[in-house]
Amino acid sequence: MAALTRLSKPACSAFSSINGIRRCLASAIALEPNGPSYVPPFALSSNLPRKDPKDRNVQWVFLGCPGVGKGTYASRLCNLLGIPHIATGDLVREELASSGPLSQQLSEIVNKGKLVSDEIIIRLLSKRLEAGEAKGESGFILDGFPRTIKQAEILEGVTDIDLVVNLKLREDILLEKCLGRRICSQCGGNFNVASINVKGENGKPGMSMAPLLPPPHCMSKLITRSDDTEVVVKERLRIYNEKSQPVEDFYRSRGKLLEFDLPGGIPESWPKLLQVLSLDDYEEKQSAAA
Ligand SMILES: [Zn+2]
C-alpha cells in the first residue's frame, strides 16, 4: 500500500511534464507518415522530465464503462486536488460542436456508437494539453484516456501515471443509467433521470441510486443525446469491454490498477473512494481550511 499512502498528501508544486506529454504525443503522430501507429515509448522518453511524485501533483487515470460516472468522480477529485480534469469525451464533444476540421468525421463515428480512433483522440488531447500548459496547469486526471493498449503505451512512454482507478458497476444498472442521461440544451449541464432501486439477491447487495435531477429552470430543456439509445449503448458497452481488458491488464501488470466497485450512487461511493485513495483526511483538512 506504499504507493497509495504516498498519494495522501498531493504536493502542489508546479510541474512541467504536461509540456513533455504534449510534445511527445505530437511527435508520436508526426513520426508516422501514414497516421499514428504505435511508436516505441523508449524512443520518446529520453528527454522528458519525470519528477518524483512527491514533488508534483498527482497524475491519475480513470477507467470505467461509459455511464459509470467516472466523469463525475474524476471531476470531484480534480476540484478537491486543484488539478485539471481532462476528459477525452468532452474534447470530442467540443470538437463536434465546433466546425473544426475533425467534426464531420467525428459525428459519423459517434452516431454509429463506434469509438473514436487513437489518432483523433491523441490530436485532441495534444491540443488540450497545449492550451492547459499556456494557462499554467499542473497535474491531471485523465478521463477516457488511454482507451486502447496503444494509447496506454504511448502515454507510458512520455510520462509517469501514478495510479489507474477502474470504476465498476453492474451491467444492468449501467444500462439503465445510460438510458437515463439527459443534457440541458441551454446550459449544457449533465443530468440523469434514472432512479435505480435494485433489491439484493443471491448474496449480491442491493443498490439504490437517486436520479441526478436538473434545477427547475433546466427541466423543460432536457434532451437525450442521439447516441443514448439502447442499441447504441449496448454496442458501446460491448466495444468498451472488449477494448478495455488489455488496458486494464497493462496497468494491473505494472501494479497501478485500483479496482473500485461502486457501492451505489455518489453519497455511498464518494466517501469510500476517498478512503481507498487515502484522501479522506485530505478532504477534511480542505474543508477546515476553507
Ligand atoms: Zn440548463
From TrEMBL:
<keyword id="KW-0418">Kinase</keyword>
<dbReference type="InterPro" id="IPR006259">
    <property type="entry name" value="Adenyl_kin_sub"/>
</dbReference>
<dbReference type="GO" id="GO:0005524">
    <property type="term" value="F:ATP binding"/>
</dbReference>
<dbReference type="GO" id="GO:0004017">
    <property type="term" value="F:AMP kinase activity"/>
</dbReference>
<protein>
    <recommendedName>
        <fullName>adenylate kinase</fullName>
        <ecNumber>2.7.4.3</ecNumber>
    </recommendedName>
</protein>
<comment type="similarity">
    <text>Belongs to the adenylate kinase family.</text>
</comment>
<comment type="subunit">
    <text>Monomer.</text>
</comment>
<dbReference type="InterPro" id="IPR000850">
    <property type="entry name" value="Adenylat/UMP-CMP_kin"/>
</dbReference>
<keyword id="KW-0808">Transferase</keyword>
<dbReference type="InterPro" id="IPR027417">
    <property type="entry name" value="P-loop_NTPase"/>
</dbReference>
<keyword id="KW-0547">Nucleotide-binding</keyword>
<dbReference type="Pfam" id="PF00406">
    <property type="entry name" value="ADK"/>
</dbReference>
<dbReference type="InterPro" id="IPR033690">
    <property type="entry name" value="Adenylat_kinase_CS"/>
</dbReference>
